[in-house]
């Protein structure tokens, strides 16, 4: 069972590794997204759930980051962990997001990526390698965070 992160100062932890496993999930509209489809871009993969208060709290900053860096070079993929589509749709009607929300029914991807606490995020560089991980809530629109992610963008 997953736990929600307690209130502590989460930070970007630098790593240099391949993603834990392939990502291939459908979004709430039924469109399939594969991590490989985004090769050449920076991808922020965020695992979350509507019942997770820190997850809900960080969503606006993820949306601001998507809007700030949201060129063809950057995308947020929010992986919802095993919740009914109706619950996710209700959440999205109250908090529209400018990035895809993917459905991990049965938590198969969540387990494959070894996510045990929500929210959990992975920043994947254009070459397909994980460059940062975060466990817990983070203000993704904080200038220092934006700067670190922007440095990964192609042409930077």
Give an account of the 3D structure.
- The chain is an alpha/beta fold and 156 residues long.
- It has a single domain, classed as Glutaredoxin (3-Layer(aba) Sandwich).
- It is built from 4 helices and 10 strands; from the N terminus they run E-E-E-E-E-H-E-H-E-H-E-E-E-H.
- Strand 6, helix 2 and strand 7 form a beta-alpha-beta unit.
- The N and C termini lie far apart (40 Å).
Any idea what the CATH superfamily is called?
A: Glutaredoxin
Instruction: Output the radius of gyration.
Output: 14 Å
Strand content: 25-35%
Share of residues in helices: 25-40%
Reading off the top of the CATH hierarchy, the class is best stated as Alpha Beta
Total strands: 10
The helix-and-strand class reads: alpha/beta
- 3D shape: globular
The main sheet orders its strands as 2-10-9-5-6-7
Q: Main sheet, how many strands, which sense, barrel?
A: 6 strands, mixed
Q: According to CATH, what is the topology?
A: Glutaredoxin
In DSSP terms (H or I, runs of 4 or more residues), the helix count works out at: 4
SSE order, one letter for each helix or strand = EEEEEHEHEHEEEH
Question: What's the rounded overall pLDDT mean?
Answer: 92
State the CATH architecture. 3-Layer(aba) Sandwich
* Overall number of structural domains: 1
Low-pLDDT residue spans: none
N-to-C terminal Cα separation, in Å?
A: 40 Å
């Amino acid at each position: 069972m997953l736990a929600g992160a307690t209130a502590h100062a989460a930070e970007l932890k630098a790593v240099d590794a391949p993603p834990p496993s392939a990502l291939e999930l459908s979004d709430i509209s039924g469109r399939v997204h594969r991590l490989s489809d985004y090769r050449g871009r920076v991808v922020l993969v965020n695992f979350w759930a509507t019942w997770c208060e820190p997850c809900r709290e960080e969503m606006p900053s993820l949306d601001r980051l998507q809007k700030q860096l949201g060129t063809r070079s950057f995308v947020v993929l929010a992986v919802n962990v095993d919740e009914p589509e109706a619950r996710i749709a209700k959440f999205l009607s109250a908090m529209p997001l400018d990035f895809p929300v993917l459905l991990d029914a049965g938590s198969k991807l969540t387990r494959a990526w070894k996510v045990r606490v929500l929210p959990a995020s992975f920043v994947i560089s254009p070459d397909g390698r994980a460059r940062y991980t975060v466990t817990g809530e983070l203000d993704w629109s904080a200038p220092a965070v934006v700067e670190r992610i922007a440095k990964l963008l192609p042409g930077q």
